[in-house]
Design goal:
This protein is mostly helical. The chain has one domain. The protein has 9 helices and no strands. Helix 5 packs antiparallel against helix 6. The longest helix has 32 residues. The protein starts with a helix and ends in a 5-residue tail after the last helix. Keywords: Membrane, Transmembrane, Transmembrane helix.
Amino acid sequence: MTGSAPQQRSQAIPQAIEPCFWPVLALTAGAAGVVATSLFYLLSPPEAVLPFVPLDPTRAAAGALRGAATLHVAGLIGITSDVILASAALSLGAQASLEDNGDSRALGWMLIATATLVFIGVDTALGFVLSALAAQSSGAFLGVKIFTNTLFALGTFGFGLGGIVLLTPYIRGRVQGLGGTAWPALVFAVVSALAGAGTLLGFDLHNFVGLGIGGGAIAFVLVGLRLLRPARP
């Protein structure tokens, strides 16, 4: 009877498996790429980048023409970073799903991966399509811009929701490993989720959309760096 007590206690306290090195490195690199992407978008006309509500097609097209160079660089970095980040999140989600902890980390990683895949469409349109359509005065510009704005808001919501689901076990103390990086990441996740949902519902929250994604990317760079550190007792 006495010999089984320590075993029961060890089973009652979930032990997280230390994340594999390469997926965590990819997470850090992908998030850093999103930070760089956000900086180039910041240098571009906001009307061309962010999901303004209501959309002004004339200003958006003019912005796409003025910011063609920075939009292209942002899109190029963005699609590359999105692939890396999505792959990392899928790998980390698969690892978390193998742990018998009963927490939400696997779902959180999968939501982040799905949202990042959505952003491949956003970065492709912003970096390679919209400026070309604006230069040709194409009537397709409006439809593509509306589609891009919708994906932007949806991806932002998914990223934020995934961050909340992922980080909740760390905030509640059920899983260790992120230290003080969990709280700022959670704040930006909440901003992203609310801003994305609000934009989809028709509210003009474009500044908060940009803040949520840019700030969230910085926070996940810190999360990745924290996970790269050796586990400490």
